[in-house]
Structures are given as C-alpha cells and as structure tokens.
Write a structure and sequence with these properties.
The complex is a heterodimer of chains A (244) and B (686). Chain A is built from 5 helices and 9 strands; from the N terminus they run αβββββββββαααα. Chain A has 244 residues and is of the alpha+beta class. Chain B folds into 5 domains: 107 residues, no CATH class; 116 residues, Cytochrome Bc1 Complex, Chain D, domain 2, CATH 1.10.760; 150 residues, Cytochrome c-like domain (Cytochrome Bc1 Complex, Chain D, domain 2, Orthogonal Bundle), CATH 1.10.760.10; 79 residues, Cytochrome Bc1 Complex, Chain D, domain 2 (Orthogonal Bundle); 93 residues, Sandwich (Immunoglobulin-like). Chain B contains 34 helices and 6 strands. Classes of the chains: A alpha+beta (244), B mainly alpha (686).
C-alpha cells in the first residue's frame, strides 16, 4: 500500500512538473541572439485610440547597444495594465533592431502606460515607458468634434490634409493638451467659452461661440475629451476621495 | 416475518430513537442547503464587497441609499431583455464611481447616449442576461452560446439599430465603408433589415476589353501579387500557382474584344513636341490638373501621397499601353462609360505631355521575370475554367462568363450564426468574433482549397470589418421598426438634359454632392444657384480659381467651351435653388455707407471673422474658410444674409458656427461683404 502511494507521488510530481514546464508562453521559447543597452521608441507612442480597439499605428521600439547601433535578435517583451493586449506580446528585433507590435487598449477610457522591456548582456533589465490614450464613447465624440471644428486653430500641427491656422492668429489659442492652462479652468468655464465664445471669459473674440452649433451633450463630450488628453493629466477637484 | 423486518431495520439503522435522530439531522441539513447556497452565492459576495467599498468613500450615504439588496433585474418585454447584471455591477449609474482604479464590477458605466433602464445590458454587451453567476453571465456555457462581446467590437452593438454613420462609432463606420470598398459584398450578399442590400463601392473595372489596355505579362504579375504593383490595391491575392496565373491571363487576353477609339497613336505633331521637350512640363500639368486629388503615388520614402478615389499610379507605366493611356486621357468615357474620372478635354500637346509623364512611372523589376510563351488553346480553356471557379465575374465583367449569384455564403445574419455550424481551428476561442476575424485575416487557414482570397488589410481594418459584420445579428433584423434609426435612403438623382450629360461627362458627382447623391470631397451644390452670381459661376467653370488657399484638393480646369460653360451655368442657376428665400430679394449694391461701415466694424470686432476669413490679403490671415476678397462678385446678397443667420441650414455640416446673429447685424455684414467686389476692391477699402 505504501509503495503504491510512493509510485503515485512520484508520478504526480512528474506530471505536475511537466504541466508547469509547458506553462510559460512563447517568450521563453525565443532565444535572444543579441543584447542591447538601450531601448528607444521608434514610432507608435502617444497615440489616441479607443477603448478596446487596436491602435491605428503599431508600436515600434528599437534596441541599441552602447554605441547607439541597432541590435538584431534582442528579446523585447511588452506589458501593460489590465485589459491591454499586444500582438505579439514579445519578440526578437529584426535586422534594423526594431520590433513592432499591435496594441489594443483596455476597456476603460483613460491613459495607459505601457512598458517595453529588454535585457542587457549582463542580464540587467532595461525598460521603456510608452503612453497611449484610450477614448471612451463620450471622449470619442469629443475627439471627432475637435477634429471638425476646433483643431484648425487649436492644433498647431499642420498636415497636408488640414493646414493649421494657429500660426496666423494674433492671439494664440491654447492647444488642448496644454494642461497647465486648461486644467485650471473649471468645466463651467470651459462650457462658457465654448458656448459663448472668448468674450464670455474676457478673452479674444477670435474664439467664436459654438452654443448655437453644438448641443449641450456635444459640448460635454468635447470637454471630456479635452480633460482626457491634457498634459499634465487633469484631476477633477470634486472627485478625489480618501482611499482606505 | 415482522421480526425479520424489524431485525433488518435494527441492523441497518440501529435503535429507532437514534435512527430518528439521524434522519432528522439529515433532513435539517438538507433543508439548510438552499438558504446556505443563497447566502454564500457569488452575487451576495459582490454586493458585500460593494457595500464595504462604498463605506470608505465620501458620498457613502448617497451611495448606500441608491443600493438595493438582493437580485436586481432590468426587464424590457418589448426587447426580450431580462438582465440581472446590475445585481453585481451595482455602481453602474453612480457618477462618483468613475475613477479608473476602481475594480470591476463596481465602476460606473462610461457615458453613452442611452440609459440602462432603456436598453438593459445584453443589447450591447451580449452574454446571458438572466444568469446570476459570473461564469454563466459572461462566458459561453452549454446552455448559452453567446459570451459577452470583447470591448474591441462593442461598437457593433450600436450598428444593430443605427444604420447610418454615428459620430461616436468610427470603427463601425469604417467597417461598413470597407465592406463596400473592398468589394466583400460582390460575393457575399448582405441584406439589411429594410430589405435593401449593401452595395459595393469599389467599381472593379470590366475585363471585356482588357487587351486594349494592358499586356498579358502585366495581368500575370498583377494576379500573382496585386500589392507588388500598387500597395494600396484593394484587389485580393488569390495565391495562384504560376500555371494558373498564366492560364487566366491567357484567357482574359483571348476573350477580350476591342472598342473602337479606345486607343490612340501619338499625334502626328509629335516631332514638334519633341523639339522643345520640357521634362518638368508633364509634372506641372499633372499638378495643375489636380490629378493627385484622386490618384496617389508612392514617393521615395514609401509614403503613399494623394487621393484614393482612383487607382494608385506609382507604376502605371508598367500597366497601360501608351496608345490606350492617350485615348483614356482624351476621353475616359469611350472605354468606360461609368468611370469616376472626368473628361478633361486636353489638347493634343497636353495629351502627349501627360502620356509621356505617366508612361515614365515604371518599376523595372515588376515585369523583369515574367516571360510567357504564346497561349495554347488548352491554356485558354483552363483559364476560363479557373475564372469561373474563382468567381472573378462576381466583381469584374468578363466576356463569356455570367456574373454568378450568391457566389459566397450570405452574411445577412452572420453575427448570430450558431456556433454548432462553425468549424473552428484548433486552439481558437469558440466565439463568433474570433471566427470572423480569423476568417478575414487568413481565409485559407481554414482549408487550402477554399476560394476566398487573401486581402491585405491592417489589423485595425480587420477589427473594423469584424465589428461591422457582428452588427448583423438576429436582433438587428427582428427589432421593432420604431426602435431602429434607418439610414438615409440612397439618392438616384440624375440631372436632366444637356447639362446633365455635361455633368456626367465631367463626373461632377465624384467630388460634389447634389440632392443627396455624390462625393464629399468638394462642397454640396444642391443650392448653388441661390448661392452664387451667374457671371462668377460661368467664369469659374471656365477657369476655376482658388477659394480656399490652404486646400490641397481643388477643382481642376476642364477646358470647357464657352457654350458648355453657359449651358451648365444656366442649368445650375435655374435648377439648384433653395425654396427658403428669393435669390434676388436683396440688391447686390447701393447700400448706405453708414451701414457698410457698421458691417466692417462687426466683421473685425464683434464677430472677429478675420480669424477664419481673409478680406484684405495684406492684413488678414484666416485660412480656414474661403477667401472673401471678392465675395461681393461671387455670392448673392440674400444668400450671405441667410447664411450668416444660420449656416447649417444652408449647408448641413458646414463648420462655420451659428452666431445667432440678429437681423440688423446680419444685414450690415451682408452690406459690407457685398462691397468687396473684384473690380471695385480699392473703393471698398476706402
């Protein structure tokens, strides 16, 4: 009887260890053939996407060595908060030292801090933080309205499809990411300036009123979007509670 | 007998008294099972957690007052919704529970235009509404197929009721657009609940006269890999073997019939042109004609620059025969009567310039390794068989082959397809979204013999298409009509008479919309006749000037004759008038100077129009709206007045904000703007 128990014990240990050995994902299958010293973002950071949805541009990071030359075959792993998924979650850098992954953000609107991670030859960990923004339904509506009505003056960046009027204005509008200024304004103040134009807050008349063009819901959506993308991030004053 | 029975009882249960005790205990325990199960149920656990969480917050009293103990239910008989999700998701309506670091299931629901009580939860999120355990509600179980929808596809749920594009659902809008643009609906029928079917928007070319246009070698290379010719090509890759591509190209060339006039040899005056060859002239003509508004070219950096209405022209020289290209540029309607390309009325020297310029856009590698021997009859027969089998005629017109009906499975209710009817790949999650996405991503992974070709789509495009397809559920088809938001019915507006022919010839509808039909690249012309002055319009049609300096997509010059320009002007001025006001109700000049001055003041101070418009090129820098330096010669006074009062009514969707202007201000501004005439500009300034 005891002997039986012993065999069972040995067999189960073997089974359990075999099961465990299979558990770690493909990450451990990839054998790095190169090691870098630094991790830099090539493209795909600071994107504005939507909750749960794959970002329009893939996230591309590059591994460099001490001299700043690209390293081929270095293992890079991506990680992020709950709900974020990467396709692929890890991989080896290509001949130009880069690894590209498609990122889908989580289901809550907000800022997501993603991490790319690689090892140096001395097994020291190198990390790179990348930030992406996920818009919820309301912020998405705000984003579309911004693109249509506001960005022409408030976004200093010109694209070939939409030339910015920012540089032409005597009184410079605040870009919506300008948290230092916009975070000081209350929701009521933002609603006032959007609805009634600049003069409502003793500002320039070059900012026209949109209260007869946009609905109340649309203005709320616009403000929720402005709040989400502001840099430094916006913290609503009435919403901070003591945490246990 | 009796003693035998009682002794058996004794041996089995012992003394009757103790047996009674045991049985009572067993009964008691069994009676306690149900209440205990209830007491230790998952949802009670979450409700306790919620109450504990709420207690630590500032607005605890309010939150506690909102909380209801026990199983909660949203019951909407009209929609067939019985949702108990709010039993655990207790804070969905609490605005104060919005911070992102709160754990689910206690966070507030993001702000959407609907309330929970109106539609419940499963209408959008799917899953099993009446379930009261986490697993049963969220996952696919034996009793319930549909798990909750992953967040990345949730916009599909909006599409169940909303048939037209919504501002907040760009992914769904894109997916629906791609269904037409990539021609999915050529092969897969998708019927909408109103009975209509989704129509393709890609306009694949007819192949009945292809030998006039291109060579067999190009067809071969294109069939092997369409994206090697043009990265933006929407034609999918059928992964054909070399012999199959050879035979299809042989059949297409053999079955092609010529069209008289669709090829034109270089003009006899070619020698004269060559005397003064200007290498930049072709490029500038290409630029001046605004070809890039519709056609893209890949630049040295690999970026595709230009519009996506027409095909990409990066390697056009590899594709088309020069004599076909010349005839096409002269009048594209000879070869394809329904093309979106306008008839430019180029002169012979212009045709030579453009043909040579485009003919030089080649890639020497593209056809370098294509060597085809003359086609044999067997190859042609086999090619015809392949064309039939692959359903080429679903998209393209092919001589001798009828367009097949329902070539591929109908997708009308794909979003509710029973899982038992689906063969999943090993290792795949057994859920509809995963199946649809995998099928689009790599159709042939479900079997090498499948006919569905490989499309070259970005991951975001695959998700968008999946979202659009997931909206095609049983629920979408069975909803009460009153709950759906129908799409705008398609317009089949056709302008009449000679002007109508001219408009078709210049393909006005490719860029402009009139009465609901047409593109959105250029302004809607439905009420153009009320808007502009006759003289200006006629001159503009002859030689379109620049109204918006910052715009890269502009109206090309179509080299219209005086008669044609007049014909078109007459038609537009007569037909395209708004019933809202009389175009001639306000005079175009002769206003009191005081009112003009008042208007000028209003323009620069109260309304600060110079932020977006230019009336004095030296001072103003508003590059958002059209330049107004000569607006008094361009627009009608009554139009300006009504536009200022309510721009969105005059042209829905315009970005000029409604200023809620009073009559006096609108009149003064109109007066001032009407003084800004092309000839009397100096006068107005004084």
């Amino acid at each position: 009887m005891i002997r039986h128990w012993r065999t069972f014990f040995v067999v189960s240990i073997i089974l359990v260890s075999a099961g465990c050995a299979r558990k770690p994902g493909p990450a451990s299958v990839l054998k790095p053939s190169g090691f870098g010293a630094a991790l830099v973002e090539s493209s795909g950071g600071k994107q504005i996407g939507a909750t749960g949805i794959v970002l329009a541009q893939p996230l591309v990071v590059q591994v460099n060595d001490e001299q700043g030359t690209a390293v081929t075959g270095a293992l890079v792993e991506f990680s992020g908060p709950v709900g974020v998924s990467f396709d692929p979650p890890s991989g080896l850098t290509d001949s130009s030292g880069q690894l590209s992954t498609n990122v889908a953000l989580g289901s809550m609107a907000g800022r997501y801090q993603l991490t790319a991670h690689t090892l140096t030859k001395a097994q020291k960990s190198v990390e790179l933080k990348i930030e992406e923004i996920a818009l919820g339904y309301q912020e998405q509506v705000g984003y579309q309205l911004d693109n249509k009505y506001c960005a022409r003056c408030h976004d200093p960046e010109s694209t070939s499809e939409r030339v910015s009027n920012y540089d032409n204005l005597e009184v410079k509008p605040h870009p919506f990411t300008e948290g230092d200024t916009l975070n000081k304004m209350s929701d009521a103040e933002l609603t006032a300036i959007i609805s009634h134009g600049g003069p409502a807050l003793n500002k320039s008349a070059l900012m026209p009123p949109y209260g007869y063009t946009l609905s109340k819901t649309e203005i709320e959506a616009l403000i929720s979007y402005i709040r989400l993308i502001s840099d430094p991030p916006y913290h609503a004053s009435g919403m901070v509670y003591a945490q246990k | 007998m009796k003693t035998a029975l009682s002794s058996l009882w004794q041996t089995l249960f012992g003394h009757p008294v103790s047996a009674f005790g045991v049985v009572s205990l067993v009964l008691l325990i069994s009676l306690a099972i149900a209440p205990a199960k209830n007491y230790f149920s998952e949802w009670r656990h979450y409700q306790k957690q919620y109450l504990a969480l709420v207690r630590s917050r500032g607005e605890a009293v309010t939150l506690q007052r909102h909380f209801h103990d026990g199983i909660q239910q949203i019951w909407l008989p009209g929609l067939g919704v019985v949702d108990r999700c709010t039993t655990c998701h207790a804070g969905l309506k609490e605005a104060s529970l919005a911070d992102a670091n709160l754990p689910q299931p206690f966070r507030r629901h993001p702000v959407i235009p609907h309330t929970l009580d109106q539609f419940g939860c499963v209408m959008c999120h799917r899953g099993q509404g009446p379930a009261t355990t986490v697993e049963q509600a969220h996952s696919s179980t034996e009793a319930w197929e549909q798990p909750t929808l992953p967040a990345r596809y949730v916009q599909s749920s909006c599409g169940q009721c909303h048939r037209s594009p919504l501002t907040g659902t760009p992914q769904l809008n894109l997916g629906r657009n791609l269904l037409g643009r990539y021609g999915c609906v050529h092969c897969h029928t998708i019927k909408l609940p109103d009975g209509s079917a989704i129509k393709p928007t890609d306009d694949p070319p007819s192949l009945e006269h292809i030998a006039d246009k291109t060579t067999r070698e190009w067809i071969y290379a294109w069939l092997k890999d369409p994206q090697a010719y043009a990265v933006t090509a929407t034609m999918p890759n059928f992964k054909l073997s070399d012999p199959d591509a050879r035979d299809i190209s042989a059949f297409l060339i053999a079955s092609s019939t010529p069209i008289p006039g669709d090829t034109a040899p270089a003009s006899p005056s070619k020698e004269k042109d060559q005397k003064a060859p200007d290498p930049t002239a072709g490029a500038s003509l290409y630029g001046e004609s605004f070809c890039a508004s519709c056609h893209a070219v890949q630049n040295a950096a690999g970026n595709v620059v230009g519009g996506d209405v027409g095909p990409e022209l990066t390697r056009i020289g590899n594709k088309v025969k020069p004599e076909w290209l010349r005839a096409w540029l002269r009048n594209p309607r000879v070869y394809d009567s329904g093309t979106a390309m306008p008839h430019y009325r180029f002169t012979d020297p212009q045709l030579s310039l453009l043909t040579a310029f485009l003919g030089n856009k080649t890639d020497s590698d593209l056809l370098a390794n294509v060597h085809l021997d003359a086609a044999t009859p067997e190859q042609i027969t086999h090619g015809k068989l392949l064309v039939t089998e692959y359903g080429c005629a679903s998209c393209h017109e092919v001589s001798g082959i009828k367009k097949p009906d329902n070539f591929a499975p109908e997708l009308t209710r794909i979003g509710s397809k029973p899982l038992t009817q689906i063969i999943f790949l090993p290792g795949m999650t057994h859920a509809i979204p995963d199946y649809i996405a995998a099928k689009i991503r790599q159709p042939r992974s479900f079997g090498a013999a499948l006919k569905m070709p490989q499309f070259s789509l970005a991951p975001a495009q695959i998700d968008a298409l999946t979202t659009a397809l997931l909206a095609l559920t049983d629920r979408a088809h069975d909803l009460p009509l009153a709950l759906t938001v129908p799409a705008k019915p398609p317009s089949n507006y056709e302008p009449a008479g000679k002007a109508g022919q001219l408009m078709a010839d210049m393909a006005c509808f490719t860029c402009h919309a009139i009465n609901g039909r047409g593109g959105d690249m250029a302004p809607d012309l439905t009420w153009e006749g009320s808007s502009v002055q006759r003289q200006w319009l006629q001159a503009f049609l002859k030689n379109p000037g620049t109204l918006r300096p910052a715009l890269i997509r502009r109206m090309p010059r179509f080299n219209l004759s005086d008669d044609d320009a007049k014909e078109l002007t007459d038609y537009i001025m007569t037909v395209y008038q708004t019933p809202a006001f009389d175009r001639d109700s306000m005079p175009s000049s002769g206003y009191p100077p005081a009112q003009v001055e008042q208007g000028k003041q209003l323009f620069y101070s109260k309304y600060a129009c110079q932020g977006c418009h230019i009336i004095d090129t030296k001072v103003d820098k508003g590059y958002v709206g059209p330049t107004l330096t000569q607006v008094g010669s361009r627009l009608n006074a009554a139009w300006i007045y009504h536009w200022l009062k309510d721009p969105q009514t005059m042209r829905p969707g315009t970005i000029e904000p409604n200023r809620n202007m009073n009559d006096e201000d609108a009149r003064a501004l109109t007066t001032f703007l009407m003084t800004l005439k092309s000839s009397s500009k100096q006068e107005a300034k004084k």
